[in-house]
C-alpha cells in the first residue's frame, strides 16, 4: 500500500509488476494473464483487462492456482505506529555492528612466530634448518682460513694434505647447503598448507553473528593477499635475512680474530649504526605493510558487493558512483604501496653508505697493520669485510621486509585462533562426526520440544523469540505462520543452533540439543531454504558432495523428489541450467538422501510459481510418509498449509496460538482467522475453501 496504493509513493509513476502472485492484483488498473507459450518466441496471453472482470471468468481456486495467496506484510495504522516507535528505540540503542579490524603494526608476537615455526614441520625440522645454516657458515669460515694458511705455509710436499682438507671442507659445505636449500621450499609449503587449513576450518565454523559483523572483504583478504604473502613472499624475505645474519656473524668473527684487540676500536661503531638504522626503519616499514593489507579489504568488499548487486547497480545507474568509490580505494592502496616501497629504498641507500664506511675503516686498518698481518689473512679478512658490508645491508633490508610480511602471518593467526567457533564440542581437525543414529537411541519421547525458548540476536536488540513452547510428534506436519518479523525463521535459527538461545531448552528425541555435538545435532535434521544452494558439477556431486552414499541410494532420493535427472547430468554455476523448481527439488533430494528425522522448510516455495509449489508440497507429503519424518514448515503462502496437521501463529516472537487449521478458522477471533481476513475477502475465501477441502468440513 505504501508503494502502489492510491496515496502511495509511486502514485504518479507507470508501473509494470511481473509476479506469479495475485496478492497485488487488486490495486492494478490492468491485469495481463500469461499462459504457457506456444513457441519459444511468444508467451500465450490468456486475459487482459480489469481484475474484477477476470474474477468472473475463472473458478476461484483455479484462478489463484492453489498456491498464490501470501501472508500480507501490510499492518494497519496502529501497528505501523507501534513499529515506528519500536524502530526509533532500536536505532537509538543499537551500537555500530561491524567489528573494527585489529592493528598489527606493533612488533611480532611470540604467538605468531610459534605458530609459523610449528606449522613449518615442527621444532625438529626448524632446529635442523637453523643448525645446518649455522654449520654451513662455520665451515665456510674454516674453508677460507685453510685456504689462507695454504697460501702462506704450504710446501710442495704437503700438497695432498692441504688439497684433501680443502676438498673435505667443500664437501661439507655442499652437503649442508643441500640440506638448507631442500628444507626451505618444504617448510614453506608445510607452513602455508597448515596455516591455510587452520584459517579455513576456523572461518567455516564461525557463527552467523561473526559473519554479520565482519565485512566479507576482510575474510577474502586473508584468503588471497595474506595467504599469497605466506606462500610466496615471506620465504623470499626471511631466508635471505637468515643467510645474511649468518654471514654477518662469520665476518665479525673473522675480523675480530684477525685484528684483535684493535678490532674493538672500529667494529662496534658500524654495528651499532646498523642496529639503530634497523630499529628505526622496521617499525615504519611494518606499519606501511599493515596499511597495504588493511587498505585492500575495502576494495575486496566493494568489488564483491558490486558483483552481487550488479543488476541493481545498472537499474539505478550507479556505475559511475561505484567506479569513483573504487578509484578512491585503489588510490589509497596505491599510496600505501608507494610509501612502503619508498621506505625500502630509503633504507637501502643508507645501508649502502654504511657498507662503504665499514670498507673504508677496514682498509685503513689494513694499511696501519700491513707489517704485522700476513698477506693471506689480509686477503681473507678483506673478503669477509666486503661480505659483512653486503650482509649487514641485506640483513637490515630483508629483516625489515620479512617482519613486514609477518603481518600476514599475524592476521591469519588472529583468525585461526580468535574467531569464535560454533559449539563447545568441536574438533577442528575433523570434518565429520559420528552419525546421528549412533547418538539417538530408540526413544518414545516426542520428536521435538521447545520449552520456553527465548533468543535474541544481539545483546542490545529485543527478543526475537520470547518463551516459545510447543511439541512436534513423529510423522506430524507443523506450519509456522505470522507476519514479517514475527520470529518464524528464528525458530530454524534456534533449531540449528545458528545463534545460542538465551533461555529455555530445545529437546530432540528427549535429548538437550545444546549438549549434543553440533555436527550430530545438525545431521539428524534436514533443511530446504528459500534460496536453493546449488554447486557446479554433476547432480551426484550436489546430492552427495562427500561421497558417503552409493549410486542406488542417490537415485532413490531423486525418484522420491520426482526429479527427472541422472546422476551424471551436468549442473552449471548456481544451477543456471535448471529452473527454480528443479533447484528446489534437487535440494529436497539432497535432504531426503540422509533420511532426516526432522525436515525443515524455511519458505522454500515463496519464490516459485503455483505449479512448482504444488510439486514440492506433494513431494514433502510423500517424504513424511516414506521416511517417517516430521515436517516443520515456515510458511509464506497460507494456502499451502491448509492440509497440515497443526498451524502455529507467531506474533512479535511469542506463540499466539497453536492448533489444526480448521479449528482455528472456526474461531473468528483467533489470530489465524484475523491473519486470513487481513488479506481481503478474495484470498480469505480461497484459503477457507482449501481448508474445507482438506478436512471435508464447511467453514
TrEMBL record:
TM stretches of this protein: 121-143, 163-196, 234-253, 259-278, 351-369
Coiled-coil ranges per UniProt: none
Signal peptide: none
Annotated localization: Membrane
ABC transporter domain boundaries: 448-677
Molecular function as annotated in GO: ABC-type transporter activity; ATP binding; ATP hydrolysis activity
GO cellular component, one term: membrane
Membrane topology listed for this record: Multi-pass membrane protein
SUPFAM superfamilies recorded: ABC transporter transmembrane region, P-loop containing nucleoside triphosphate hydrolases
UniProt keyword annotations, A-Z: ATP-binding, Membrane, Nucleotide-binding, Repeat, Transmembrane, Transmembrane helix, Transport
Ranges where the ABC transmembrane type-1 domain occurs: 127-394
Similarity comment: Belongs to the ABC transporter superfamily. ABCC family. Conjugate transporter (TC 3.A.1.208) subfamily.
Protein name per its UniProtKB record: Uncharacterized protein
